[in-house]
Amino acid sequence: MNTPPPDPSARPARLTVGVVGAGRVGPALAASLQLAGHRPVAVSAVSDASRRRAAELLPDVPVVAPAQVLERADLVLLTVPDDTLPGLVEGLVETGAVRPGQLLVHTSGRYGTDVLAPALRSGALPLALHPVMTFTGTTVDVQRLAGCSFGVTAPEELRLAAEALVIEMGGEPEWIEESVRPLYHAALAIGANHLVTLVAEAMEVLRSAGVAAPDRMLGPLLGAALDNALRSGDAALTGPVARGDAGTVAAHVAELRKHAPGTVAGYLAMARATADRALSHGLLKPELAEDLLDVLAHGAAGRGTEGEER
């Protein structure tokens, strides 16, 4: 989707930018805003790793305490873990660090702007801008923001300003209602976080099977599978589960139980989900589904099946 340029009247003025929490996300977003003409002026960082990230992505920007970040910045990026965010906001308000008219932007996928309510009562302007991307904590992240979707939640009167900030970072704003933020975030976790786990497990099993370069073997396969899935959805399903090949699935479970027992539960769960989707979309024939589901049930119970002896 090509997003049209924002209305010039909604374009944020050049702002001083601060970062509270120099994890992988905050410094990259601040560096991207700097490219758009804004001016990073302060960052808070605790660990050695976060200090290194700040130095690499925001050179010459001073590292100060969170309260001092808010003192110096017109726009403050709160880039801390989800579970830390509510307490951080309350603490900043209690210490009087939040100023009226100050833009407070968090990057949590889970929360909308309700989590910023204490700061709103202090006159802050709340924005939730969640970049739908995995971050490395290096300069490559700034380049990857080009075309990256952002889940945007903001008061209606700040919507244009929020979307303009996203576009200035090279992103694509996608409006997410406050009430569905957790559902939206769960969908992203299923797609991205679980994908990393699946790929890592696949590489480990391939190494156990003697494959010297599992990444090279999986690259073309997974790239094609992802492209097909994004284009065609469930119609892209292939493999023994979608075909109803119960004997092959039983053999998989038996071998995984021997050589990679930690992957069995995940394999069975994904196989059941795949079978359900393949059935619903007419890819898996009902007459083959019974044997397949029986194999999966036996596998979950840890019992052998005839197919496992093949």
From TrEMBL:
<protein>
    <recommendedName>
        <fullName>Oxidoreductase</fullName>
    </recommendedName>
</protein>
<dbReference type="InterPro" id="IPR018931">
    <property type="entry name" value="DUF2520"/>
</dbReference>
<feature type="domain" description="Putative oxidoreductase/dehydrogenase Rossmann-like">
    <location>
        <begin position="1"/>
        <end position="131"/>
    </location>
</feature>
<feature type="domain" description="DUF2520">
    <location>
        <begin position="148"/>
        <end position="274"/>
    </location>
</feature>
<dbReference type="InterPro" id="IPR037108">
    <property type="entry name" value="TM1727-like_C_sf"/>
</dbReference>
<dbReference type="InterPro" id="IPR036291">
    <property type="entry name" value="NAD(P)-bd_dom_sf"/>
</dbReference>
<dbReference type="InterPro" id="IPR019665">
    <property type="entry name" value="OxRdtase/DH_put_Rossmann_dom"/>
</dbReference>
<dbReference type="Pfam" id="PF10727">
    <property type="entry name" value="Rossmann-like"/>
</dbReference>
<dbReference type="InterPro" id="IPR008927">
    <property type="entry name" value="6-PGluconate_DH-like_C_sf"/>
</dbReference>
<dbReference type="Pfam" id="PF10728">
    <property type="entry name" value="DUF2520"/>
</dbReference>
